[in-house]
Design brief:
The protein has 16 helices and 15 strands. It is an alpha/beta fold and 411 residues long. The strands form 3 sheets. It has a 7-stranded mixed sheet with strand order 3-2-1-4-13-14-15, covered by helices on one side. Strands 5-6-7-8 form a 4-stranded parallel sheet. A 4-stranded parallel sheet has the order 9-10-11-12.
Length: 411
């Protein structure tokens, strides 16, 4: 780790009021030792110091849903209709080698750093992302995906997942964690959901699942119809006994929901679902631009927050939305839910850390937490600093620091 002192026109700690002409001091252990006015924060003579004019220092952004191994596939999946898009993507994934997945994940992580993101929660089945996070000394959770719609294959699918997690577990060191992800209700049988959830609970593993993302998914579970039902029947797979169940209730019936569960998307949900999420302690990864790209609709973000559900922001994959830009996601969330700049900026930082159970370590510029920082260029003037940040974009990121280590810097 490298001690350093960062100063800027504004510092937004997130857990406290913005500081005009502020500074952040990061110790040699990579943790924040002081935050405050530039004139007050110590200036150790042996500590490198960098000053950024017309910029804001804020906590590194937390991206609660990525697919970094899919980087580079965007131009090859032109379809937008969701079921067709998924089929095309699954076909395309078979064309990449293990080495190509690792190279794609490296590019994806570099793009996250360039966008001010310091922690990612990634789902994938290649194992590439946890390898890349480990080699980079990064911060995040790599959820190993498992698929299996046939109930008769649930035991074999669970065994395969367990073997894969045991193989990758040695890479979960430092600030890198491993988790599991039974993909979605239209790719995973009820018995496999129960088996994976039970094993994750016994092992203390975090779990992530795509749920209530599309109308087609709800149609599949509630009525046994639509494109996903047709795909199962075409493969000779019996439809799940889920008539009348919403996707969220289907997860609850199989023991998936808990305070270690991250529900990705959660668009097609009703007040009963929201109450169930809140009561279970489950968190939500909100991806507004991906939801719009696939015509899934607008998630009830304000209602989720009002119910006390932990919510973070995610960019989903490049295949859905292009290059990751969590500030663009924040603007979309603010517009859709009528949130003020401070609230939506918190979703992209401390809120995301809470959703992942990492808020004791990152998400705000608090002494004792990791020195994860993003430096964002803002327009000249005397506006509200949070609002100025939201009017910026990934292209305005001047520098990104993970535990005090510089992982991105513009010339």
């Amino acid at each position: 780790m490298l001690a350093r002192r960062l100063a800027a026109r504004w510092v937004i700690p997130v857990d406290g009021a913005p500081i005009e002409r502020g500074a952040v001091l990061i110790g040699a252990d990579g943790r924040i030792s002081a935050v405050g006015l530039d004139a007050v924060v110590p200036r150790p003579h042996d500590t490198p110091a960098v000053e950024f004019d017309d910029a804001v220092i804020l906590p590194g952004l937390i991206n609660t849903h990525t697919h970094l191994e899919l980087t580079g596939f965007a131009a090859q999946v032109p379809e937008r209709e969701f079921a067709t898009w998924i089929r095309r993507l699954r076909e395309l994934k078979t064309t990449r080698t293990a080495a190509e997945y690792v190279a794609a994940a490296r590019r994806g992580l570099a793009e996250c750093y360039a966008a001010g993101v310091t922690t990612v929660a990634d789902t994938g089945d290649s194992g590439a992302v946890i390898r890349v996070l480990a080699e980079a000394g990064g911060s995040g959770v790599a959820y190993q995906e498992v698929f299996g719609p046939r109930p008769s294959q649930s035991e074999a699918s669970l065994t395969g997942l367990q073997e894969r997690v045991r193989e990758l577990a040695p890479l979960a060191t430092g600030r890198v964690r491993i988790g599991v992800s039974p993909h979605a209700p239209y790719t995973v049988s009820g018995p496999l959901f129960s088996a994976v959830a039970g094993w994750a609970r016994a092992e203390g593993l975090p779990l992530a699942v795509h749920v209530a993302e599309s109308g087609a998914e709800s149609q599949f579970l509630l009525a046994g119809s639509g494109p996903f039902a047709q795909a199962w029947l075409a493969r000779g797979i019996s439809l799940p006994p889920s008539a009348g169940f919403t996707p969220v209730r289907w997860l609850a019936e199989h023991g998936v929901l808990s305070d270690r569960c991250l529900c990705i998307h959660a668009v097609q949900i009703d007040p009963t679902d929201i109450r169930q999420l809140a009561d279970s302690g489950a968190a939500v990864a909100h991806c507004p631009l991906s939801n719009l790209a696939h015509d899934h609709g607008v998630a009830p973000l304000a209602a989720l927050l009002e119910a006390g559900v932990r919510v973070g922001l995610g960019t989903d994959s490049e295949v859905s939305v292009g290059r990751p830009d969590l500030l663009a996601e924040a603007r979309a969330a603010a517009t859709q839910a009528g949130l003020n700049p401070d609230t939506v900026l918190e979703l992209g930082t401390l809120g995301g850390a809470r959703a992942l159970g990492l808020d004791r370590e990152t998400g705000s510029l608090t002494p004792g937490k990791w020195g994860d920082c993003a430096i964002i260029r803002v327009a000249e003037g005397n506006g509200d600093p949070a609002e100025m940040v939201l009017h910026s974009s990934a292209h305005d990121v001047l520098g990104t620091y993970v535990g005090g280590r510089e992982v991105y810097r513009t010339l």
